[in-house]
Write a structure and sequence with these properties.
heterodimer, A: about 425 residues, alpha/beta, 6-stranded mixed β-sheet, 5-stranded mixed β-sheet, globular, B: about 260 residues, mainly alpha
């Protein structure tokens, strides 16, 4: 599973030493015997070319560090993770790992549909090298975490996809990894389960587990990572503080013009006629003291800071929308961005008082709007978990007027659904 | 090499779980379940008996026992190689997502077929008793034959599993090769009786022929097996196992990529 190397320095969990990995793009991959025979008879057999998925990587990851890997599709993130887990071997150079490495590349990979949840837990455990006795000790906590007590002896083919994912996550998280590799799997289950996943990850962080996280969500990287690495075409483009690397990532997307944040890919013309693309560089939620936050408490004011780069002059609006996770539009606000001097980012901050909402899940959407062409040219989403007890969605100031003596109260709306206010007037 | 061996030992529970998975899944939705492991060779024996005593009589006495002794090890061979050959491709989803020693997949395929083989042995013993064949102390020698055959199958299984990743037509070719091999192996005929002059060559080049001949010596004739025979077959099979393993290991680096 993991090769303990004598040259690995004590403070590092992983060392990449001039590591490269190339793949052959086989235009005549000898998948079948026919291809192979043909390739023998052909005069020139030169149509194989190799490309480097990773080129000369040279960095270390410290013990207990959580590192986020960013990069566009094809930047080499997945290859990197597969090399860390031992699924792929480097073409040249070396990787040195200290500790048991576990991968969450795809939840429930290796589950057999015909087998029960119980059998699958044991099978999966043994794929990770755990014996029966060790798995028996972990079994209870896995089942409890996955909340599948009642269905544990049901074949997993009858599980809903959510149940399947929960079992996969619960199994993976309980494998006592020393190095954990996570590829885009942190968004499973409902909000409550996600929260527990996040708590579990934080628990591992406290236990000094080294975590490598690939995510397209800058929010997740901000939330969990101590450090971020930006990959592009198999090379390290930036490595360091999360915020800096995220900014660099936004710039990269901007330069390459097809950023995932751009909805329409339309460019706007700036005042000097030069073609440029406006883009969100930062969409950050802050509390009253200006600290970035991920969780909102109801009743506590907060602010949304928006920074746009790539276009300093042309008229641009930012639109902020609140949606439920089901997509229902709750609120929308619009504000023109002030122009700045050339090359400077443009920014604005929207301050909100206490949230009049009583939901445990909220999407905040920031859109960049070009009023001249009426185009949405950028969009970022923040998925918020609110620490509230379940209850009616809206808190509305309202008034009760009884038939006899008139008394006005500002009632506690948590006990009164919003609709009642308008329909139950006598 | 030592590190690899230690790794395999550390993963022994994976072998057990893969084998139980195989056995559980195989008969999951069938009505008779594991009884098929017993019924299948019995029914095949009936078919061969009908063909080779009524349609093409061979003149072998106690033919049902004779053919079943050949069929059981042959079926173990046939099924192991078929499932070992596809074991990597069938488990592609795990291989590309989790690291574990991949040699365990073809090895588990051979082991789970070995269990089916062992489960069917009592049926053979019942049939022997029914036909009044002698039970001798040489039966205790059978585990040696099983180990020799297991080495052969693991070696070939590893070779086929690796080959199938590079050439996906391995499966198609394998079908024909196995059919030819079946006819060249004295499963339903007695080679010493039908082709006495070529028998020696067949035993030298076809380990399965030697192995089946040994099973027959012990169970059908109740006689002492030829030890030199086994030393030779054992050595051949051991070499095949090592070669298969080395071939597989040499492909290991390409597995994650080709699958």
């Amino acid at each position: 599973m993991s090769r303990l190397s004598n040259t690995l320095s004590a403070e590092n969990a992983i060392e990449f030493d001039h590591l490269s990995r190339s793949f052959t793009i086989n235009h005549e991959q000898n998948e079948s015997l026919q291809d192979w025979v043909i390739s023998r008879f052909r005069q020139k057999k030169g149509s194989t070319e190799s490309f480097f998925a990773l080129q000369d990587l040279n960095f270390n990851i410290k013990r207990g560090e959580t590192v986020g890997f960013l990069g566009r599709n094809g930047a080499g993130k997945s290859t990197l993770l597969k090399i860390v887990t031992g699924i792929l071997e480097p073409t040249s150079g070396e990787i040195r790992r200290g500790g048991r490495t576990y991968a969450m590349l795809e939840l429930g990979a290796g589950f057999h549909p015909e087998l029960s949840g119980r059998d699958n837990i044991f099978l999966n455990g043994s794929i990770y090298g755990f014996g029966r006795r060790a798995m028996r000790e972990k079994f209870a906590s896995i089942v409890e975490f996955a909340e599948l007590e009642r269905f544990i002896d049901t074949p997993v083919k009858y599980y809903s996809s959510g149940m399947f994912m929960r079992l996969g996550f619960a199994t993976a998280i309980n494998m006592d990894p020393e190095i954990l590799v996570i590829d885009e799997v942190l968004s499973v289950g409902d909000a409550a389960f996600q929260r527990r996943c996040n708590d579990a990850i934080r628990g591992l962080q406290q236990k000094e587990v080294t975590i490598l996280l690939v995510s397209h969500s800058s929010e997740q990287v901000r939330e969990f990572c101590d450090r971020a690495v930006l990959l592009s075409s198999g090379k390290v483009l930036a490595d360091g503080e999360v915020e800096d690397v995220l900014t660099e990532y936004a710039r990269l997307q901007l330069r390459e013009g097809t950023g995932s944040m751009t909805v329409s890919g339309q460019s706007t013309l700036s005042a000097n006629g030069q073609r440029s693309l406006a883009q969100f560089a930062k969409v950050i939620l802050r509390d009253r003291t200006g600290e970035p936050i991920q969780q909102l408490q109801p009743e506590i004011p907060f602010a949304l800071e928006l920074t746009v780069i790539g276009d300093d002059q042309s008229p641009l609006d930012v639109i902020v929308r609140w949606r439920t996770t089901l997509g229902l539009l709750l609120w929308e606000g619009r504000h023109p961005l002030p122009p700045t001097t050339a090359g400077e980012p443009r920014g604005t901050t929207c301050h909100f008082p206490a949230l009049p909402l009583h939901t445990d899940d909220l999407l905040i959407e920031a859109l960049l709007h070009d009023p001249v062409h009426d185009l949405i040219i950028g969009n970022e989403e923040i998925h918020l978990h609110l620490a509230v007890e379940p209850g009616p969605l809206l808190q509305v100031d309202h008034q009760w007027v009884d038939a006899t003596p008139v008394v006005s109260t500002k009632a506690d709306s948590t006990q009164t659904p919003a609709i009642m206010a308008s329909t139950s007037n006598p | 090499m030592v590190a690899r061996a230690q790794e395999l030992i550390a993963y022994r529970s994976l072998v057990r779980n893969l084998v139980t998975k195989d056995l559980k899944v195989r008969y999951k939705n069938s009505f008779l379940g594991f009884l098929w492991s017993l019924l299948n060779p019995l029914l095949m024996m009936l078919v061969y008996t009908l063909v080779f005593t009524k349609i093409f009589p061979t003149g072998v006495v106690n033919f049902p026992v004779f053919v079943l002794i050949g069929l059981l090890p042959w079926n173990w061979c046939l099924r192991s190689l078929n499932s070992a050959a596809t074991s990597l491709i069938d488990n592609r989803t795990i291989i590309t997502k989790v690291y574990f020693p991949r040699v365990l997949l073809p090895i588990s395929a051979v082991i789970s077929e070995a269990i089916n083989f062992l489960l069917a042995m009592p049926i053979l013993f019942l049939l022997m008793a029914f036909f009044g064949l002698p039970f001798t102390g040489w039966i205790a020698y059978i585990p040696v034959l099983i180990i020799i055959q297991a080495m052969l199958l693991v070696g070939l299984g590893l070779f086929l599993a690796g080959l199938n990743v590079i050439f996906r037509d391995t499966g198609v070719i394998l079908e024909v090769v196995l059919l030819a091999w079946f006819f060249l192996t004295p499963v339903f005929y007695d080679i010493k009786q039908t082709y006495p002059e070529t028998a020696g060559w067949v035993f030298r080049f076809n380990p399965m022929a030697s192995i089946i001949e040994q099973y027959r010596t012990i169970l059908y004739l109740g006689a002492q097996p030829g030890f030199s025979f086994d030393v030779r077959a054992g050595l051949t099979c051991f070499v095949i196992m090592i070669l298969g393993y080395l071939f597989f290991i040499s492909l290991n680096r390409r597995l994650g990529e080709h699958l």
